[in-house]
Amino acid sequence: MPRILGRRLLSAAVTLFGASLAVFAVLDVLPGNAAAILLGTAARPDTMAAMAHQLGLDRPAYLRYGSWIAGAVSGDLGYSAAYGVPVRGLILERLAVTLPLAAIALTLAVSIGVTLGVLAAGRAHRWPDRAASTAAQLGMAVPDFWIGIMLILVFSTTLRWFSAGGFGGWDDPAAGVRSLLLPAVALALPQAAVLSRVTRAAVLEVLTEDFIRTARAKGVSAGRVLWRHALPVAIMPVLTIVGLQVSFLIAGAVLVETVFNLPGLGRLAYQALAQRDLVVMRSVAFLFAALVIGVNMLVDLAQPWLDPRLRRG
């Protein structure tokens, strides 16, 4: 296990290094003047030069990259050109919304997707399977921001069960969770649809194994065969998809947080793009990449723990 951990950490570090190079190249090195993007082409030359100096654009690219990485390691991400405050404070404030939102959405996606997938596999080629497959196809076809708009129309405008948007903070945890519930459902439903299809296929494959036939021959109930025997073996491909879905949740948060007017990291990225705040965009993009890489590394480490055969291999 320590050898597996070392390999995964090394792979994650190399991937994160490549992601940092890509983010820096796109925002700082490729043709284009970041100072001109921030100030506009009509800005005076001396103002442009002062902004370029403030951004460090008058230094070589490798020195700028080194300073950025050193600052990121120490927690100093620079100052936002649009807000005039440290980027670190902005990100920490917005993470308090985005991380709980992603956690709730992922929990809902796994709960709904795995349950529907197992039930569909247990009733394969019957009406429950066809109903679950139709719902999954619909969920994969509809974008999450459209689902968010429909949820607002139904549960906020018509039924008035939830607020249409906004976030009141965590002073009242129940109110905070309530304000995140609709956007979490909007994020979770498309991912639950994908998970249900993957779970169904994985469980159906396991149901053809000899140990399943043995369990049935011993008189084990159909529900116990599905949940206690088939699902634990079929969980590996499901777990892999869950790790990949984190990137889709983060990408979807950009639009969903905008639809629900949530002050999260996705909305901060959208605002930074609209305001051409390249310092914030660079830090947020790198943080998104780090979150995705970190979650996928945890998924890789969980697989040998769940399946002893991988540890022996």
UniProtKB/TrEMBL annotation:
MF terms (GO), sorted A to Z: dipeptide transmembrane transporter activity
Pfam families assigned to the protein according to its UniProt record, in alphabetical order: BPD_transp_1 (PF00528), BPD_transp_1_N (PF19300)
Similarity comment: Belongs to the binding-protein-dependent transport system permease family.
InterPro entries noted in UniProt: BPD_transp_1_N (IPR045621), MetI-like (IPR000515), MetI-like_sf (IPR035906)
The keyword Transmembrane belongs to this UniProt entry's keyword annotation: yes
Source taxonomy: Bacteria, Pseudomonadati, Pseudomonadota, Alphaproteobacteria, Hyphomicrobiales
TM segment ranges: 95-121, 142-163, 175-195, 233-260, 280-302
Protein name as it appears in the record: ABC transporter permease
Alphabetized UniProt keyword annotations: Cell membrane, Membrane, Transmembrane, Transmembrane helix, Transport
Highest taxon in the source lineage: Bacteria
SUPFAM superfamilies xrefs: MetI-like (SSF161098)
